[in-house]
Amino acid sequence: MTEKKLIFLAILCSGLLLLGALAFQYVAGLPPCKLCYWQRYPHIIAILFGSIYYFTSITKIAIIPATASFASAGIGAYHFGIEQKFWPGPNTCSSVGVNNLSTDDLIEQIMTAPIIKCDEVLWSFLSISMAGWNSIFSTFLGLFWIAILILSLIHISEPTRPLYISYAVFC
User: pTM for the complete prediction?
Assistant: First the structure.
């Protein structure tokens, strides 16, 4: 597989993660919370800088989509931890106790509370929520970008057979 195909595959993966999130939102009717939106932004950055890398072949740009993928994974892991009650989420995004709130503070919290809470799991598969799956996929995608960067620094030449990568050592 050529370097261009690997880059295209990585860009496609970020695009598919975004399309999946949009499908859950608009087709399945699962509204996203604030942290769900935050997990999407790094993939947009990965697509943008991955496309720049694809068309310019400036090798060091690959670190930006890698970092963006790891950022999305980190936000996803943080969100998953909030959903599992490992730690509290932001007050603007989570259900919080009302025991120590005054009446005015309680009314303020009710009036400013978002419709969708970050600590509620709306969908899960194998007991892992969408935020957890995003964290897993984004971690592997970040590792894939790092592998592309390393391979491009070693130098990927055109393969003699279409399914294999041939390596030249520091040409």
Answer: 0.73
Q: Which residues contact 28 (CB under 8 A, 6 or more apart)?
A: 123
Tokens encoding 161: 């057979």
Q: With beta carbons less than 8 A apart as the criterion, state whether 97 and 105 touch.
A: no
Rounded distance between C-alpha atoms, residue 19 and residue 40, angstroms: 10
Could you write out the DSSP letters of every residue in 38-106?
Answer: HHHHHHHHHHHHHHHHHHH--GGGGHHHHHHHHHHHHHHHHHHHHHTTSS---TTTS----TT--HHHH
Q: What is the mean pLDDT of each run of 10 residues along the chain (171 residues)?
A: 86 93 88 84 94 87 92 91 80 60 70 66 79 91 91 63 49 46
In contact, 10 and 145? CB cutoff 8 Å: yes
